[in-house]
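Researcher: Checking consistency across runs. Here is Alcohol dehydrogenase 8b again:
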Amino acid sequence: MTTVGKVIKCKAAVAWEANKPLVIEEIEVDVPHANEIRMKIIATGLCHTDLYHLFEGKHKDGFPVVLGHEGAGIVESVGPGVTEFQPGDKVIPLFVSQCGECRFCQSPKTNQCLEGWSSGGHETMSSLETRFTCRGQKVLQFTGTSTFSQYTVVNQIAVAKIDPSAPLDTVCLLGCGVCTGFGAAVNTAKVEPGSTCAVFGLGAVGLAAVMGCHSAGAKRIIAVDLNPDKFEKAKVFGATDFVNPNDHSEPISQVLSKMTNGGVDFSLECVGNVGVMRNALESCVQGWGVSVVVGWTDLHDVATRPIQLIGGRTWKGSYFGGEAHIRFNSSITMEQQS
């Protein structure tokens, strides 16, 4: 029986409030409005940013909400004005929009956009407009996506059509982790052939950053993490050295400086911790070292002593992989994904 034009009832993991377990609920998913796409989510990953909102950010106006922003699915129906997508298309919902018209979209210097959920501020991690209801009340859509639901509705400017043969349980990671880490190394840090890099944090984003450094031709990639079980996996993606800060009595920046004759050329912080951000910066060689903040947090100020920057280091941030500016709602082929 067709669901087109009808409200869909489906299961979703609802976060009713901060610091509490998610609850599997039956929610109502409205029909897609103008320029919107309703899709069936086939696969989703769990990103630290979901946990950050639930356990760290905890903004009172950010609940109830359906979390999840790293998914892939199939278009179920489209709203008025949608011409580039049709039912049956395989797609990835994206937490970064591209309207194609704003100041950011018109610039080759960034992949950010003034439209979408983030235009209202990052505190709630959601737009106040939602297509979800549960138990008679509105439920927010996390970063405009909400992939912890069997169905979701997303604006067409935040959807990428992918190759029909793409395995959704794998390419869902392109919705955040892979693009964020790989792009931070290649687009934002601009890792150079023959360089030495350090990647702090070996989750999905960190492993993708390792992969990006390797793809860019780095000769030495130092993986830094408190969990030694992650080191073998990092080696598969191109890491050459492994450092556990718990194995050393001195600051990790000093450890890396001694290992690299004064510091690494590039460092990437993929944790979302302001202390690690400072360590990553101070692990870079003075004169030309570049450190990129990749991990998400907005709770504390980040600080370092001015001499760290006066000495020639560069401190940058990267959002969803940074500068590579593509038309999100164009088809992504398997060749591009690889």
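Researcher: Does this match what you'd expect to see?
Model: One thing to look at in this run: The two ends are 37 Å apart (CA to CA).
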